[in-house]
Amino acid sequence: MVSKSFFKAGHTPTLASAFLYFDLSFMVWVILGPLGVAIAKDFGLTPAQKGFMVAVPVLSGALLRLGAGLLVDHIGPKKTGIIGQLIVLGGLLVAWFLGVHSYHQVLALGVVLGVAGASFAVALPLASRWYPPEHQGLALGIAGAGNSGTALAALFAPGLAQAFGWQNVIGLAALPLAVAFVIYVIFAKDAPGRPAPKTLPEYMAVLKTRDAWWLMGLYSVTFGGFVGLSSSLTIYFNAEYGLPAVTAGFFTAACVFAGSFLRPVGGALADRFGGVRTLSVVYVLAALGLALASFQQPSPWLALALIMFAMMSLGAGNGAVFQLAPQRFAKEIGVLTGLVGMTGGIGGFYLASSLGWAKQATGSYQIGLLAFAGLALLALAGLTGVKARWRRTWPELAGQTSGLRL
Questions:
Q1: Which of 5, 50, 101, 319 has a CA positioned 20 to 30 A from the CA of residue 207?
Q2: Where exactly are the transmembrane stretches of this chain (predicted)?
Q3: How many beta carbons lie within 10 A of that of residue 200, not counting itself?
Q4: Picking from 76-85, 230-239, 329-338, 350-359, which range would have the lowest pLDDT averaged per residue?
């Protein structure tokens, strides 16, 4: 799927730097989820409190993505990324040095970790602006595959917490972030021809466009499902199937790796077959996987297979949405990435928190999973309703008579 023209068209060091920055930022963004079993044990948290704890960084990251998107268009993605990484590194080191002594302090740390989640609005424009429209899906898919960092957290954090204590894991997380920061500073470069900065009303003008709201809604389901599950699955497998925290972390990592791997595949499929077609299939498969997973399975391995299937579908959908976005909003891709990423994070906050509330209210996660499966089908219905208009109007809006892959 990767052609020679792809490597000639863009800037590979920037693409690789964007991926690493995004990857390790996402690792710390969701780290409270893999540490959740240990944190809950120390502070005696209820299921609803556990769900809210892992949802706070997701919501914080969602809201901060808008600001990051504005900064990207105003000062450029590289400088914005440097600022964000320094804030996260500082927050981790302060929390480790002073210690985290209450549930409310955990939530405060979660707000700071949201800055790492805002990396989405930086890494994607940083990579995207180097590539022409025919390679947007794959380039954004590769950069966006940095959401695999959530798997690194699930893979290593529970075991490290068992060996050194969960508070020390917070300090250890700063080490790989520091390495990524140095690589980013040296190798990442802003693409030439960056759009001139706009006033705030000009930035917000994109919200007057229906298509922006549609893309925001579509991404709230694909990315919301992905990050909401990534944050919650360690706690889910521990509570629902009695798996030890380390084993539950391995199960979570498998699901996240599968979903992350499918993100660039989804972007490449969208380049070839069209983002609308790819998304239509994705929503059906994701809804099916989530609905089946909502029923208590006789084996955690069967539950793992079903959730992995759903995560792969959602991951492919993430790539497909961002194949569509630059075709319609090439000049506003920075702020649109922030807006779309914000609603994606809001979807993740909803899923993570609703799973905790469902568990506390009913003793099962079923209602939360079924509700999100319903949202996937609702997104499919909306996409079906707008696709004819998009195919008719987007080429003209982009100044092309043909060539868009919708």
A1: 319
A2: 20-40, 52-72, 81-100, 106-126, 169-188, 213-237, 243-262, 274-295, 301-321, 333-353, 365-386
A3: 9
A4: 329-338
